[in-house]
C-alpha cells in the first residue's frame, strides 16, 4: 500500500532516469569498450587522489598544497640544476673540512699479510690518535664527549672493560650479570620519574637511539588509540 501511494511520484523519476541513461549511452556509442575502461580508470584515480589529498591526511590542506607546489617546482630543470649545484657545493665544503684533519695520512686499504705485534699495534693506534686536532677534553664540544678533567675515570673504565668487555647483552641467559645491571638501571630511572610497578624500559646504545625510541613509543601509543597517522 505504501508503494502504491508513492507510485505516482516514483514513475516520473524513473522516466527521467531512463531518458538520461539513453542520452548517455548514445553519447558514449562513439567510444570503444577499451576507451571507456581507460577513461573510467583515469577518472577514478583522479577522484581517489583528490579524496585522499583532502580528507585522508592529518596535515592542514594549506600545508599540503604548498608541499605539492614546491614538489612540482623542484621538477623544473632550472631549479633542479640549482638544487644539484647547492648540494654539490655543500658536500664539497663538508668533505674539504673533514679532509683537513686527516691530511697526509696513509690509509690502509687491505689487511696486512702478517698480523701486527702488540707493540706495532699500539704504535699504529697512536698514529690514529694523533689525528685528533679538536681539544674535546676541555668540555667545550657540545654533544660530543663528556670529559671529567678533575676526576679522571680512565682507570675504572679499563677495569670495567676487563670484567665485561667480552659479554653479549643479547644473550641474557648466558650473561645474567649484564641482564641484572640493565634491569636495575631501568628501575632506577623509572623510580626517578615516579614510575609505578608496571613501568618498564630498555637500555639503548646512546642518546640518539633513546630519543628515537621515545618517539616510537609515543607513536605506537597513538596508533593503539586509533590515530591513523601520528606524527613522530
Oligomeric state of the chains? single chain
Got a strand count? 0
Distance between the termini: 60 Å
Average pLDDT across residues? 85
Topology as a string of helices (H) and strands (E): HHHHHHHH
The share of residues in helices is 55-70%
Low-confidence stretches: none
Strand content: under 5%
* Biggest sheet statistics: none
The radius of gyration computed from the alpha-carbon positions, rounded to a whole number of angstroms, is: 34 Å
Label the overall shape: elongated
Structural class: mainly alpha
So how many helices? 8
Offer a concise description of the structure:
The chain has helices spanning 2-28, 33-54, 61-73, 77-100, 118-129, 154-164, 176-192, 207-224. It is an all-alpha fold.
Give an account of the 3D structure.
- It is a single chain.
- The protein is mainly α and 232 residues long.
- It has a domain of 72 residues.
- The protein contains eight helices and no strands.
Amino acid at each position: 500500500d505504501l508503494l502504491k501511494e508513492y507510485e505516482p511520484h516514483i514513475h516520473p523519476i524513473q522516466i527521467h532516469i531512463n531518458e538520461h541513461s539513453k542520452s548517455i549511452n548514445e553519447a558514449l556509442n562513439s567510444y570503444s569498450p577499451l576507451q571507456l575502461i581507460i577513461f573510467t580508470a583515469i577518472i577514478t584515480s583522479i577522484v581517489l587522489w583528490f579524496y585522499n589529498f583532502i580528507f585522508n591526511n592529518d596535515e592542514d590542506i594549506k600545508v599540503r598544497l604548498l608541499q605539492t607546489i614546491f614538489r612540482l617546482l623542484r621538477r623544473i630543470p632550472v631549479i633542479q640544476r640549482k638544487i644539484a649545484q647547492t648540494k654539490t657545493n655543500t658536500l664539497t665544503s663538508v668533505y674539504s673540512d673533514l679532509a683537513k684533519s686527516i691530511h697526509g695520512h696513509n690509509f690502509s686499504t687491505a689487511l696486512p699479510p702478517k698480523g701486527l705485534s702488540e707493540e706495532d699495534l699500539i704504535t699504529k693506534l697512536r698514529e690514529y690518535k694523533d689525528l685528533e686536532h679538536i681539544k674535546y677534553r676541555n668540555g667545550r664540544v657540545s654533544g660530543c664527549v663528556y670529559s671529567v678533567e678533575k676526576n679522571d675515570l680512565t682507570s675504572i673504565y679499563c677495569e670495567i672493560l676487563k670484567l665485561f668487555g667480552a659479554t653479549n647483552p643479547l644473550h641474557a641467559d648466558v650473561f645474567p650479570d649484564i641482564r641484572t645491571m640493565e634491569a636495575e638501571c631501568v628501575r632506577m630511572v623509572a623510580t626517578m620519574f615516579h614510575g609505578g610497578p608496571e613501568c618498564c624500559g630498555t637500555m639503548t646504545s646512546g642518546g640518539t637511539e633513546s630519543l628515537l625510541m621515545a618517539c616510537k613509543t609515543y607513536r605506537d601509543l597513538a596508533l593503539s588509540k586509533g590515530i591513523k597517522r601520528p606524527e613522530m
